[in-house]
Every structure is written in structure tokens, then in C-alpha cells.
Amino acid sequence: MAKKTPEKQTVSANDEATIPALTRSDLLTDDQRRIILTMMIRAREYDYAMQRLNRQGRAFGGVYSQIGNEATAVGSAYAMGDKDVLFPMHRNIGGHYVFGQDTRTLLLNQLAREGSRMRGTDGTGHYADPDKRIYGNISHLGSMIPVAAGYAMAARMRGEHIVTMTYIGDGGIQTGESHEGINFAAVQKLPMILIIENNQYAYSSPSHIEYACEKLSDRALGYGCYGITVDGTDIELVYETCKKAVEQARNGQGPALIECVTMRMRGHAEHDDFFYVPKETLEYWQKKDPVIRYENQIIEWGIMTREDIDALRQNIIEELRNAIDEVVELPFPAAEEGYRSVFVD
Fold it and tell me: Whole-prediction pTM value?
């Protein structure tokens, strides 16, 4: 189990208490730590690149930043097995990378170029890559949960011992489809993990006008499944918590409801200046930046040096630049592609 600090894990945005040290889990090797750090840096740099492309008018659809959410996205997905299935949301690029997705494929979709899985009809994450066991999000986010539950049930009927994992925000978890999906999964004891990314704002609506319970994971008791709330900026804590839930689900103990408390450090999308978030709140969560803190922790543990991490980041940036240079030169799909799969011949 993880080696915990004696200090209480602080997740409240308004709590000015000393920020506790990050968890060091006994379930991870140092090689695995290098991998998850790489995935977090890759996700962060991809976000920075998409912000620039959006300002240049080259990105299509919305650009939804995951900055501040990398530990939740990477830590949860990394807990899954080789045959498990991921249903990520628009802020889970880190999960795409964990499941083997490549930068070029992501860019093809978000820049709406010829060869994209969405055929240029959509620029966000609404795409599936069955070969990599990734099924993209539905804009009406609560609807993803019944789909993930249905996939888990179908797999069980086929005799496959897989686990599905999907995500929802603190706003989306209030929708009827979310409740129906979780309840169905709990009643059927389906092997499904639901990650609630509680970044404390549903667009501009703060948590206190979204729900009245203290923790969203408290609802697990009513559904009759496992539930827990963790600091979503602590990647090894997220990983260990999800790993336990995945194994419980795989062993027939039913779904899990895991609330990861984070802060969305950009607006709902790049068009949103998130003026509604108090500056002191952002200042607090900036101190808990999941990428910067984990980099510093990796150095402190003697796993990598600052020079190692800087070189890693530079390699990732060069890979991104090369992929962008290639993709932006590709043509847009033919207009006729917009009609495919829409009308029956």
C-alpha cells in the first residue's frame, strides 16, 4: 500500500493549510514512474500546442484544456489492464497517450485533416479507435456512462474479463443519464469504473450550486457500490486508488465511483477567460500543479535529474512540432465526407 504522509490530504480550494507531500505508492516501480511522468508531460505539451493552434485559427471545434487534470487522466488510465476499455472525455488526452494513441492521430482529428477518424466532421474527441480500445466522448456527457456500462455487460456475456473506465465532471454527474447508468452498473455488478473529475466548476457554475452533498463519492452508498474521494493532483494516489477499484471490479465486486478533486486551470474551453474563478483559488491550485510537483518529486527521489526531465520535455516538444508541421500541410477532407453515415442509401 501507499506510504502516506501524516498530514491530512487537502483538496479544498479555499484551504490555506500546508500542501502535503505526494504519495509514493509501493505498487509502482521507478521505470513506471518515468512512464507516467512522460505521459503527463506529453499531455501538458499537447495542450500548449493546441492553445497556440487555436489562436492561429487552425483548430476546429472546441479546444478543452486538461491543464491541472493530468494526474487524474494518466493515473486512472494507467491502472487499467491490457484488454480493458477506455471511454475518455475531452479533458483526458493523457489517457489517450496511456492507451497507446499517437500525437499525429490526435492532431488529424483536432485539425480536421484528411485521414482523420472523424473525416474532418468534428475537431474534438468524439472519435473511437477500437484497435486501441478507446471510445470517444459523447457531447451530452452523462450519456457515456450507460454506454460504458453496456459495453461491460456485453463483454461479460461474451465471457471476457475486462473492465471499462469512463469519466464525468462535477456538472455532468448531476444528469439523469449519469444516475441511471451508475445505478444499472451497481445493480448488475458490472466491472465499470467511473471517475468524477471534480474541477469545481461546471462551465461557470461553482460546486455549491451544483450539489448539496459534501463529497460526490458519498452517493456510492445509495447506489450500493464502492466510492472514495481523493486528491486528483496526486498521481500515485490516483493510480493506487484506481488499481484497487479495477481489481475489485474484475473480481466481480461491481463498479466504483472515484471522485478526483482537481482544478481546471483554464476556462471551460479556450474561448472562456474563466473570470468567474477567484484569483486566490487559482493561486492555491497552481501550487498543486500535478506536472511540476511530480517532476520535483521524481528529482527528490533520485529517479531522474532535472537535466533528464528537460531533455525528455524537449524531445516531446520536437515530436509535437514535427507532427504539427506534417498535419497542417495535409488537405481537408472532401465535402462529401460530411454526408457519410448520415443518410441511408
Answer: 0.91
